[in-house]
Amino acid sequence: MKHVPKGFWIFSALLLLLLSVNVFAADKVLDASLLDREPVSLTEYLAVLEDPGSSLTLADVQKPDMTNRFKGGHAPAMALSYGFVRSAYWLRLTLRNTSNRPVERMLEIDYPLLSSIQFHQPLVDGTYRSIKTGNTKPFATRAHPNRNFVFAVTLPEHADQVIYLRIQSGSSMIIPATLWEPQAFYVHAQNDYALQTWYLGIASAMLLFNLLLLIALRDNIYLLYVGFVICTVFTVLSGNGLAKEYLWPDSAAWAEIAVSISYSLMITALLLFMRRMLNTQELIPRTDRLLKIIVCIELLVPIGYTASLNAVVKPFTLYQFAIGVLILFVSLFLWFVKRQRNAVYFTVAFSFFLGGSYIVALRIVNLAPTNLFTMNGLLFGSALEMLLLAFALADRFILIRRKAINDVEQANINLELRLYEREAELTATHERLREIEQRQMLSQERQRLMQDM
Q1: Per-residue pLDDT tens digits for 126-164
Q2: Which residues of 32-69 are buried (b: 16+ CB within 10 A; e: fewer)?
Q3: What is the per-residue pLDDT for 5?
Q4: Architecture of the domain defined by 14-180
Q5: CA atoms of 349 and 201, how far apart (whole Å)
Q6: Which residue, among 80, 65, 66, 76, has the nearest Cα to 28 in the 3D structure?
Q7: Which of 42, 77, 236, 344 stands the most exposed, by the fewest C-beta atoms within 10 Å?
């Protein structure tokens, strides 16, 4: 065998080392040691690989032929969004620590509806610290007890680390990944849970107040409102991850479909409440029959979600969008054409809810940015809707009370008129009787005189 120069082996080793380093040269590196109190969105630092067959493993995506297929260069944004897809997505994130000490950071993915998340961080011995969690996994699998997915990341001094995440979703694929300084994250988490508590406080107050009105007035419209509030709260809790944390932490299949089914039930409750509040059966009977049909369809929609969420979630989302437009159109018609007072409150209230819902939907299909408002659109919209509908019910109660007072006053006036009329009749009758009596007395006196003569 011909002798190979030693320089050839040195050159080959250096070439392989250079190639292994340049594999991630296109990835934008984030120096996590410079992170201060403000969080950093990781969208522009992520390299993404789509896995249509959902079959790739961590070892597969680290192979040279796969590493080159990762695509980076994303524009700065709050989230990556791919709409309704069945593919799994691998994310590659390169973090750097240029300081003289290890630093700890918190990686948050602020979208609780992601079905499956795998987090892989390299260790000193060459192995990986792997965490497998997601909406379809027990809540106990989460590395950090939070309604979102949070992972603690420790970076050694003067070192780079390449972190891999595998994400799959049964509904929409939205990945709002953020890196936090630990103390800043804990403050953010407290504020976030305070916002959720504020919402639940409003909902609880509306619920209890209208339950008391139901007991006091025996009017089933308050029962319909209470049902609507309960369905709305369950929809919001299912969508923001609190239901997974506190109500069904170990559920897999139900956690995946809970938000969709809760939304259908919420629309059903809203339609029933709307029919009663706006009196559609009398004012617009043909449209009222259509609303009854929609209620029946909404009650059947959960069957489709249970059978195959991936297959029906997109068409059903478009269907719910159309139903929202129809409800708004009906309330506007009753407001401007029928001049119904309650329709004013209902239209304004539902507009807030519909706006919040559509903002969330646009975010899901990647037509709206991901920020605090779009992430909590349903929460803000439903809170304003519940408040305004409660005001509408209070206004309805005032109108009913005012009508009752007017009816009593009118009844008193009518009674007084009848008393006057009766008194006049009695006076006239009395006068006639006196006249008759006087005539009789005169007749008797005449007869007596005639007898004396």
Answers
A1: 899 999 999 999 999 999 999 999 999 999 999 999 999
A2: bbebeeebbbbbebbbbbbbeeeebeeeebbeeeebee
A3: 55
A4: Sandwich (2.60)
A5: 19
A6: 76
A7: 77
Say which residue the tokens 């437009």 belong to: 325
pLDDT of residue 15: 40
Which residue, chain included where needed, has tokens 């018609």?
333
Q: Is 68 helix (H, G, I), strand (E, B) or coil?
A: coil
Four-residue CA torsion sign, 173, 257, 147, 319: positive
CB atoms within 10 A of CB 416: 10
pLDDT digits (tens, 9 = 90+) for 349-402: 999 988 887 787 776 555 777 677 777 888 888 899 898 988 888 887 787 788
Which tokens in the block code for residue 126?
């060459």
- For residue 236, which amino acid is it? V
| Cα distance between residue 410 and residue 51, in whole Å | 76
Secondary structure (DSSP) of 3-18 = PPPHHHHHHHHHHHHH
Of the listed ranges 65-74, 113-122, 443-452, the one predicted with least confidence: 443-452
Residue 26 pLDDT: 59
Q: What is the pLDDT of residue 365?
A: 57
Which pLDDT does position 21 carry in this prediction?
41
Structure tokens at 332: 């506007």
Q: Could you report the per-residue pLDDT of 12-49, keeping only the tens digit for each?
A: 434 433 333 444 445 899 999 998 888 999 999 999 99
165: left (phi over 0), alpha (psi -120 to 50) or beta: beta
Question: What are the Cα distances from residue 412, in Å, to 404, 408, 423, 426?
Answer: 12, 6, 16, 20
Phi, psi (degrees; rounded to nearest 5) at 308 = -160, 95
Q: Which two tokens stand for residue 266?
A: 């919420």
> What DSSP designation does 140 have?
G
Tokens 């979703």 belong to: 169
Segments in 62-144 forming alpha helices (H): 64-67
Q: Which of 261, 289, 265 is nearest to 275 (CA)?
A: 289
| Farthest CA pair distance, the chain | 183
- What tokens does 412 get? 């008193």
167: which residues sit within 8 A by CB, 6+ positions away? 88, 89, 91, 109, 114, 116, 117, 118, 173, 175
| Phi/psi at 51 (5° precision) | -120, 85
Q: What is the CA radius of gyration of the chain?
A: 37
Query: 316 CB contacts (<8 Å, ≥6 apart)?
Result: 260, 301, 304, 305
